Amino acid sequence: MSFLSTETGNYKSRIARAESLASRYAFAAEALSFYVAVARFQGDVYERLPKLWGKQPRVTADGDLRAELNLPILLDPFRQFLSLVESQGPRPLAAEAHALAQGSDEAWAELLEAFWKNRMTQAPEREAGDPLAEFVARAFLLPYAEFLVNGMLPPALPMVTCRCPRCNSLPLLGVLRPEGDGGKRYLLCSFCSQEWEFRRIFCAQCGEETEQNLPVYVAEQFPHIRVECCDTCKHFLRTVDLTKDGNAVPLVDDLAAIPLSLWADENGYGRIQVNLFGT
């Protein structure tokens, strides 16, 4: 079993890919343009974190990624992020950012800590909370999680795990990376963007391994994105196939594939974990 960190901190590639896809898919252009602004902010935070963090250890001795947040270095950037979302986000999200900006440091700390400790470990239909506030916390804390996880040693992996070995979060995506004459399957964490190797014929939600119960659908519009469904648990995982498009950036290509979520919903499949925009 192998473990990868190819997605973490790769903000320049994410921005370039989002700009390219925005020009290709008119229906996703507005969302991707907003994502570009968010990713630029995230990349700036990621680059500044080593200096802000100083010489203290990144993680606790027991390697707990979800240990207590370093709030003193986060609250000022969080204020800046709320300003960004208020000025550039879609109207409902801008209104949420404006409302949050009126809160106290204590209220911000409570919001961030609640997300940091509890989110991305349960299926979306079982999670409670305000999706707009959750977007703000999730988008803001992503570079922080990636910064911490890149300071950790690779974990020992079990043969098959449907949860991130780093933080116990649900997978956001599958990724097929070229290997030999085919592709090796990885899962990408919805919380810290790490990837871990995963079996090809295996449901990442319930563990179903009977091939006829695991149909795969590909739309002509997105030939490099597979919708991997499970007829046992009725969940699906989107998988970005880098053997078909080596220029794809999984986190970003997933945001552009809005019609695939609509198709899955119409056909009775629920996503294991939604992306940043809830699709």
What report would you give on this structure?
This protein is α+β, with helices and mostly antiparallel strands and 279 residues long. It folds into two domains: 142 residues, no CATH class; 101 residues, no CATH class. 41% of the residues lie in helices and 14% in strands. The protein has eight helices and eight strands, in the order βααααααββββββααβ. Strands 1, 2, 3, 4, 5, 6, 7 and 8 form an eight-stranded mixed β-sheet that branches. A hairpin with a 5-residue loop joins strand 6 and strand 7. The radius of gyration is 18 Å and the shape is globular. The chain starts with a strand and ends in an 8-residue tail after the last strand. The model has no long low-confidence stretch (mean pLDDT 91).
Question: What's the arrangement of secondary structure elements?
Answer:
Elements: E1 3-4, H1 11-24, H2 29-53, H3 75-88, H4 91-101, H5 105-118, H6 131-149, E2 171-179, E3 182-189, E4 195-197, E5 216-218, E6 225-229, E7 235-241, H7 250-256, H8 258-266, E8 270-271
Parallel strand pairs: 2-7, 7-8
Antiparallel strand pairs: 1-4, 2-3, 3-4, 5-6, 6-7
Helix pairs in contact: 1-2, 1-7, 2-3, 2-6, 3-4, 5-6
